Each structure stands twice: as structure tokens, then as C-alpha cells.
Amino acid sequence: MKTTICLIAGATLLASAAGANAEIRFGIMNEAYPPFFTKDASGNWVGWEIDLMNAVCSEMKETCSVVDMSWDGLIPGLQSKKFDVIWSSMSITDERKKTVAFTNKYYNTPSKLIGAQDGKTGTAVEDLAGKTIGIQVSTIQADYYKKYYASVSSEKTYATLDEAFQDLAVGRIDYVFGDSIPLMSFLQTDFGKGCCEDKGNVKDDPQVLGQGIGGGLRQEDTELLARLNTAIAAVRANGKYAEISKKYFDFDPYGE
């Protein structure tokens, strides 16, 4: 009996110690979103957002891991505690703030349209009249479409941008609407160069398009939120953010 009690007590102490330095789990979309995250030949997640996550975790002196799931499962996954932080190019919006506590932004990117090379250039409402626009589900661009373009054009939704790019390339849709960096990355591929071009950035609307990209946490996790904000500021200040960014961009993705 004494041995059993000792074993239980020891296990309790070990569990407490593990909880004090528990692994922080970062949730990302389970589809490639270059250059922010994609899988390498070994099946490991790599990319700008992964490198930044590692730098932030190093700053906090924490062990971190990646949990991937569908884009529209990220907020439910956070709330059900399948992971601790959404770290998946999620825009900070007032609507999302109702359920998610966001860190300070760690990058910002305008929204843009790309289309076929022989199509009309421009992003004004009249430019898109009668056109079909491809948009990833549950994104800020889907909300923007409803506000500005739904009255004159039609929408086709996709689980991933890759699916939208494929339909654009074969002419099933006229445009893809999304964040500028992944869209421009697609245009730089052989596939993208052969079919499509930049049609321009849309008019900004911070109320819909948000205030930049941040990490998303459960609203009660205030201590982790504060630590992440401190770490994000530190990697900006110590030059690590710029070092990582130069591997992927010829500009500062932090934005204004």
C-alpha cells in the first residue's frame, strides 16, 4: 500500500511539473499556403509562419508543436482545446474578436484579385459585373465579396486556394480573390505565369478586412496572450523577424 501511495504521489508531481512547462500547440490550416506554411519532402511543416513560430517559442523558452486541420475548423478546434494558438494567417477582425482573443499583428497584407491574362484589369465594382469570383470559405474576402461585389457578380467557394487556382487556370472562374502574398506567390510559379496575372488590390475596408494578421487564443488565456505579444515584439526588435523575412520576401511583411 505504501508503495502504491508513493507511486501515485510521484505521478502527481510529474504531472504538475509537466503542466508548468506544457508544450504550446499551434494550430494551422492543413493545406499548403506558401510561403507561410507548406510541407517539405519529409512531411514537416515549413515556411515563414513556421519559422516565426519557432522564433517566438525560442524567445519564450517554450517547446511548441503544430496541429493542422481544415481552415473552417480552426476556431472550433481552438475552443475545444485541440490546440492553444491559431497561427494560420488569420486576420484580426471585430467579428472574430467576439470569440477569439488576438495577439498584436505579426504581418499585414492587402487583398487582391488575380485573373486570366486576357481578362479585364481593375477591381472596381463595375469591373467585375457578370464575372465569377473564386474565394476560400470563411475568409475576410468572403465577407468583402458580400458587401461590395455580390450585387453584380457570382461567387464560387473553395476549401483551399489551390482548388480555386486550378479552376482559374482552366477558365471555370474569372478571378480569385484573396490575400496578396499567396496570390502573388502563385503568379510566380510556372503554372501561374502561364495563365494568370495581377488585376490589382481592392479598396481597403479595415472593418471587413481587419487590422492585420495575429495569433488567436481562447479569451481566458490572458497570460499566454501577454507572453506571445512580448515575444513578437522582441523578435521584431532583435532583428530575427527581418532575418526570417529576407528568406521569403523582398519587403517587410509587417506592413503599416
From TrEMBL:
<dbReference type="GO" id="GO:0042597">
    <property type="term" value="C:periplasmic space"/>
</dbReference>
<feature type="domain" description="Solute-binding protein family 3/N-terminal">
    <location>
        <begin position="23"/>
        <end position="252"/>
    </location>
</feature>
<dbReference type="Pfam" id="PF00497">
    <property type="entry name" value="SBP_bac_3"/>
</dbReference>
<keyword id="KW-0732">Signal</keyword>
<dbReference type="InterPro" id="IPR001638">
    <property type="entry name" value="Solute-binding_3/MltF_N"/>
</dbReference>
<feature type="signal peptide">
    <location>
        <begin position="1"/>
        <end position="22"/>
    </location>
</feature>
<protein>
    <submittedName>
        <fullName>Amino acid ABC transporter substrate-binding protein</fullName>
    </submittedName>
</protein>
